Amino acid sequence: LGSAGPCRRAALLGGCGMRYKLLQEGDIQVCVVKHPRTFLSKILTSKFLRRWEPHHLSLGDSSLSSATPTGYMESPLSYSAIEDLQPLSWDNAPKYCLQLSVPGGTVLLQAANSYLRDQWFHSLQWKKKIYKYRKVLKNPTRWEVVLKEIRALVDMALTSPLQDESIQQAPLHIISTLLSENTNLSAQEHENIIVAIAPLLENNHPPPDLCEFFCKHCRERPRSMVVIEVFTPVVQRILKHNMDFGKCPRLRLFTQEYILALNELNGGMEVVKKFVHSMHGPTGQCPHPRVLPNLVAVCLAAIYSCYEEFINSRDNSPSLKEIRNGCQQQSERKPPLPLRLLRSELESPDPPVAPPPLPPLAPLEILVELERNNNTANKLKGPAGGDSEPNLIDCLLVSPTLSALSIQLPAQADRVLGCFALILKMLSDYDDWRPALASLLQPIPFPKEALAHAKFTKELKYVIQRFAEDPRQEVHSCLLSVRSGKDGWFQLYSPGGMACDDDGELFASMVHILMGSCYKTKKFLLSLAENKLGPCMLLALRGNQTMVEILCLMLEYNIIENKDTQLQIISTLESTQVGLRMYEQLCDRQRELKELQRKGGPTRLTLPSKSTDADLARLLSSGSFGNLENLSLAFTNVTSACAEQLIKLPSLKQLNLWSTQFGDAGLRLLSEHLASLQVLNLCETPVTDAGLLALSSMKSLCSLNMNSTKLSADTYEDLKAKLPNLKEVDVRYTEAW
């Protein structure tokens, strides 16, 4: 080290040194000397040095060429013709020159400065070497020599001072081409090549053909140590840094095959579980935001592949609507068709043509059996083919198993399905991943054949249960459909849906969590009354407290207009002890409400500071407040819970909630019931955009104070557009100010 120069010393000590970008083209001075190399130093000061030509050179894959092919560079200079390449180092040599030794002479390149000269030097040296390796590895004869050349190529890429993405990608593409053209390698040769190129894969994604090679190795030798030692960091890098599997689907396929290879180890799914945990990390928050979306993409693609041949081959697959409610009659559908159906039999009325011979490999065999119960279906139609609505109790008798589709997958597809369904279950166990996972799965991304498969929906039920148990609204709100007219998990796992196998326990759990946070309570109750009233009544009849509360709310909010249906609901409530008790409490509340809303009492009311929700409830239950128009709760300790009392005031027009703990949940309830409210003061309350957006339905608002709240500029603009009567607004000390 003591005798080494500074650059050499830095290299020996592992210093970074100078880094250069790979040149593809550039301007440079060119001079050709037609003299032997031994006389070059003697003519450096002669007239030849005045014969420089400016050229714009391009560094191609096989040669150095000029954009203006004249003079010295009339024809391209092949890299194979360059015998030697070095900077000029004689004392009397011109500055910043490169010497390219070619047969019969020397080509001199003069750059503008030393850095540019070195950049040209390293770029030309790289192009020359990579051209040599591409040529050597194109037609391999002895694989031990090929392996030695691959190792030398990898070392060259790792030690090059050029800092460019293509420096390490080019060797990978050369090796990828080599492997794609030589498919008869032994397993040991496979492993030797993979180990040799492993250093390049630490910071680079493998190219598509190399991914195919890796996939083949995972399928043929899943227990190989290469899978654990070499592929694990490669897959980890893919999951952490890949931005779009759509642009590189073979990366996704390689990740899928790697996970299946892990599943083949002795530990099976325990090894996969440890891998997923390593991707998440030991802390409560995963530091890599791309891991979850990439894992979900791999799972979705793998699950789709289990049903892919069935999807592509069978034109008579059931619609999602059929899967959900099973109400389509057998006569309305084509009869079940075999998987090997010939399209010519359907598309052409011509005489049948003899089918072509089947391929030797047996295709995926999936048996689809549709069971219908005509007696139950006739009950739904009504008497004598009439158009009257079906009786609600008859609707309850429709069992989801009557329209079940029994799908049998081959053993390999069944293992794939079990593996990736279990990964989805693992992902749902991480609290920080659950919101994003729920959002990714909200528009149901699975094919309808998967949703008709009892094993799959049973496995996925755990994930939906985790969503239903999560108290965060951003999670359990994803159980609903992404927009009206679309089916969501709530519909699929409700009684009558194909995925429901528990007599409505999960459905009741979903309803409970959604009712606790859904700000469109009335709208949600209306949708339940229209689509799921029968299941709600059945579960209430079995004593489910959530469904008893739902039926009581439907009566309290006048959701049900049909008198006969109201009587059926009352009969259902009175048939159980919990229902009877809650119905009696409802009747008591209705009597109190009538007394409260009876005309009379004050028109203005101000509660003392420090009053609580209980104080307000006690005050409003003491007499009639049907005339109350102005209520001030400023500087009290009331919370969103008092909204249940406020919505009972039919004449309320002005409400002051200044400096209270009234939040988003209370605002959502007010927006549904106090349509005539004109003045609302929310100054210094903890309301956010989530609650303030609900005010857009209160068209009578003409004065709104949102001073010192968490109002955003976008929400403010939205409220202004949707509240035509709004004249006075206070948004000081907010983002919209």
Automatic annotation (TrEMBL):
InterPro entries: CMIP, LRR_dom_sf, PH_CMIP. It is found in: Cytoplasm; Nucleus. Residues 19-138 form the C-Maf-inducing protein PH domain. It comes from the Eukaryota. Its main location: cytoplasm. GO terms for cellular component: cytosol; nucleoplasm. The keyword Nucleus applies. Keywords: Cytoplasm, Leucine-rich repeat, Nucleus, Repeat. The keyword Ribonucleoprotein does not apply. It holds the Pfam family PH_21. This is C-Maf-inducing protein. It comes from Scleropages formosus. The lineage of its organism: Eukaryota, Metazoa, Chordata, Craniata, Vertebrata.
